[in-house]
Amino acid sequence: MIDDKTKARFLKELTKNGNVFWACRHINIDRSTYYRWKHSDKNFSKTAGTAIRYGRENNSDIGEIALLSKAKTGDMVAIKYLLSHNSPRYKSKVADMSFTYKKDPSFFPPPPEEKNMPTKIKLEIVPGRKRDESALNLADNPDMSNQMPLQ
Questions:
Q1: Considering Cα of 38, then 39, then 41, then 45, what sign does the dihedral take?
Q2: What does residue 70 show for φ and ψ, rounded to 5 degrees?
Q3: Where in the chain are the domains?
Q4: Around Cβ 39, how many Cβ atoms within 10 Å?
């Protein structure tokens, strides 16, 4: 049987970090023991909830200290993060926008008319001529017969 001293040690560890798994491993008890205590003892359950909140606050403080240390050394990623999350001047403008999807066909313009577009263009390279003197074979495509050959 686990005594009240073990429960007190567990709650102390839980207050340090806010993580049940880590606190259980640190004092060598199984997680199922914690959940059994939590379900059978309302006072323990309430105290454990408070310990978890304090532990998470401690972790947040540790994270903030590390972030501030990085910013003090000139780490631009840390500096941008701090400014964008703590000053309205540096907040991202995109984050404040909201988007609504509407299926409205009048929103998109119709595709351009394609009735005069050729379906095939045959490029004929005549041997003996320079590359830039190539001409389109316009006889095979009557829609392009009024166009000048590319040079």
A1: positive
A2: -65, -40
A3: 4-96, 117-151
A4: 10
Sheet strands (E) in the chain: 123-124, 135-136
Q: Distance between CA atoms of 13 and 78, rounded to whole angstroms?
A: 30
* pLDDT in 10s for each residue of the chain, 151 residues: 578 899 999 999 999 989 999 999 999 999 999 999 999 999 999 999 999 999 999 988 888 999 999 999 999 998 888 888 888 887 776 555 555 555 566 666 666 665 665 555 556 666 665 554 444 444 555 555 455 555 5
CB 54 within 8 A of CB 18: yes
Based on the number of CB atoms within 10 Å of its own CB, is 120 exposed (0-12), middle (13-18) or buried (19 or more)?
exposed
Residue 79 to residue 84: CA distance in whole angstroms = 9
What token pair was written down for 83? 């400014």
